[in-house]
Amino acid sequence: MVFQKDTKKRWVAAAAALAVFLLVSVLYFAPQFRGEVLPQHDVLQYEGMSRDIYQTREATGEDPQWTGGMFSGMPAYLINVAYPAQLVKNTVGRITRLIDTPAGFLLFAMVSMWLMLLVCGVDPWVGIVPALAYGLSTYFLLIIGAGHVTKMWALVYAPLMMGGAWMTLRGNLWAGAAITALAASLEIGANHPQITYYFLLAMAAFWISEGIVALRERHLKEFLRRTAVLAAAGLLAVGSNFAPLWYTARHAKETIRGGSELAAAAETQNPESSDRGLDLDYATAWSYGRAETLNLLVPDFMGRDSGWTFPSDGQVAATANEYGLRGIERQLPAYWGTQPYTAGPTYLGAAALFLAVLGALLVRGRNRWWIVAVCAVMLLLAWGRNFMAFTELAFKLLPGYDKFRTVSMTLVVVQWAVPLLGAMALMRLWRGDVPRKRLLRALAWAGGVTGGLCLLLAVAGGSLFDFGRGESTVLMTDQLHQLFQSNGMQEYIDRGMDVEMGEAIGAAMAADRAAMMQADAWRSLLMIALAAGGVALFAFGRIRRGGLVALLGGVVLLDLVPVDLRFLSSEDFVSPRRRQITATAADKAILADRTPGFRVLNLTVSPFNDATTSYFHRSVGGYHGAKLARYQDLIDRYLSQLDEGVLDMLNTRYLILPGEDGQPVAQLRTTANGAAWFVDRLVTAEDARQEIDLLGKTDLKTTAVIAARDLPLAQLPAAAAADTLPGRSIALVEYHANRLRYEYSTPAEAVAVFSEIYYDKGWTATIDGEEAPAFRADYVLRAMRLPAGTHVVEWRFRAPGWRAAETVTGICSVVILVSAAAAVVLAVRRKRRGNGRQEATNAAE
After folding, report:
1. Are 142 and 344 in contact (CB under 8 A)?
2. Could you tell me if 633 and 779 are in contact, meaning their C-beta atoms sit under 8 angstroms apart?
3. Using CA of residue 53, residue 54, residue 59, residue 65, what is the dihedral sign?
4. Is the alpha carbon torsion for 648, 651, 653, 654 positive or negative?
5. pTM tops 0.85
6. Are strands 750-757 and 664-668 parallel, antiparallel or unpaired?
7. Contact (CB, 8 A) for 298 and 457
8. CB neighbours of 502 closer than 8 A, spacing ≥ 6?
9. How far apart (Å, rounded) are the C-alpha atoms in residues 104 and 90?
10. Model confidence over 475-527: pLDDT tens digits?
11. Does pLDDT of 260 surpass 80?
12. Domain extents for the chain?
């Protein structure tokens, strides 16, 4: 009966936890259940970039695996490809569809964290508090608002993956392996390698910690056995996603993540430079400032987000009014950090950080040091260019680390580790195995460190930092100088008014920022006081452990939810119509042109950072973090300068320009080369640098630029290549993203250039059904030598080795699902045997 009672209590706790998580998620995203939606930037971009793919599926029933709608064409591996053999993702992963997003994001993030803590031996009641802290971390709400869907799903599954590793190395070996394989399969399937990579670093730290313990306690053999099983679970997880991983890995070498061939051509002494990953400056553009790290504890330490301006009742407004610059405060940024742009701080919660410090003081070494070490390393990595020595070391030593940008994203691991440490502290209190004297001493230290820091910032913070005063003064002085010059107010400049006003407003900006920081420092101090007060009441026996958990859960909600609402609230929801991409008059005019294959360049948006144009047209531009490297070279060298010859070779038939009334208008370009054309001459290049240089010196309508190594495939007999031949024609007659058909006629053998992106890992060409060789021309396009006569050329795209990749994926997926089912069956049987033995014991008594 005792065993049954304990089981019943755990089920009640599980139901209560699920109810709390569901209630919090539903209340926070209440507008979702009224049919409203979030105008998420990345979701809109995704709708644009994937439109061509969905249209091809609807029209042909085929998965194209390629899109022609963005950057003149690119593989769809990192956009949307259907992988039927991903059985784990397509079965167990569908559980997350029970509650639609964005509420589903919060719900399943908290459930995943709670399950991980359960696996780690944390009581289900205790697990509610750290699960709330994890799910309501401000960063989650920032990325949900931005529409970073894959990132969010990766953060949902990551805790459960870590829990599986914990159980495999410490607890039930086979159950842990099953959980690891299942969760890691979902994690990898979320398709955000950067998040997965950072959590694998955390897992490596845990593994090293366990290895040290095993060596010290002399059970290395058992540790190695568990390591082998954990590795096998990881390999199964990778295998269950083999197809997407394989194609992504092969494709990555051709993208900006794999480096530029131009760099290799320029650095002949280091030919491997083309595969060295991202440029260090580019990768570290979003680096957390050292001081900015304090906004993990004080949310407005750095002035909130880049779009936040100063209040109308602050010192900036008052100072500006004195100089007759009314309303200028609404144009000045309150954020004073070093990042190019930020949607808000990574606020972890003052109460959660207090509990983490308490955990670091109370938890034994085996459960403490690896978590503290992970937090420290990830903080240092997040600093990026602000601690370049450490960053460069990581780029050199960590395999694959140089493939990722936005180094500040490493803080997601800290966001997970802080609640984990807090959970460890609460479990010690829940079990009652901490002497009161030690608890009070740890409480004093934890409260003193976190609360003392908040108190220091609240009282003296205004004098500890300059709050960007110097930069603001220079910014305002320059702006005022330009303003006076443009309005013919030279006398103001001569009198030094621009400098005087700039210094005054710069000082006011610093004062307002200091006030924002101090207000939040007092707020964080209050949250720490409430959490510490709850622990103190428990220590003196004023409240029981259930009351402590309830109180701390309330403090976490009181702490995090109001801050989250600063960045994502019900006011951000809109009707579904307002989030739709709607066709402008310019779009409609272009859509009326039924000529197949042409492209559009939209200059009313940032063309190479916006994919909404691709919703309606085949776009020269787009939005993607892993575009083809050669195409990026073309953007940097020619397209950003609107080079006419390159626009023509990309068959850019229309420009979308801002009209006189500010509305987009379509402008027809009559010089576009068309979907394909014959050339009369070839010019060869020895390397990529010479190849791209020749584009600006060559008439691409009559001449093709090719690599010297492709000359045997392209060269025509002397008689055929001597003069321009009359009566030649070639036209695109059918377009789908993955299939293009051309009809041509030529009296003699000729070379044709196709205005389609060259990609030899999947595209094959046939002439009248017979496969024919192709080669690259004009740096990024396709070309073929075509026989005389009237024929049909067809291009088809199919991921190479598709059947084999899907077979490996399917087999590993089945093994994981069977293993997970077996683990559940064994657990049920074990519980039943335990119940039976307990009943027999009770009967005997």
Report:
1. yes
2. yes
3. positive
4. negative
5. yes
6. unpaired
7. yes
8. 473, 474, 475, 476, 477, 478, 479, 480
9. 17
10. 777 777 776 667 667 766 777 777 888 888 888 888 999 999 999 999 999 99
11. no
12. 37-82+580-672, 99-252+801-845, 676-797
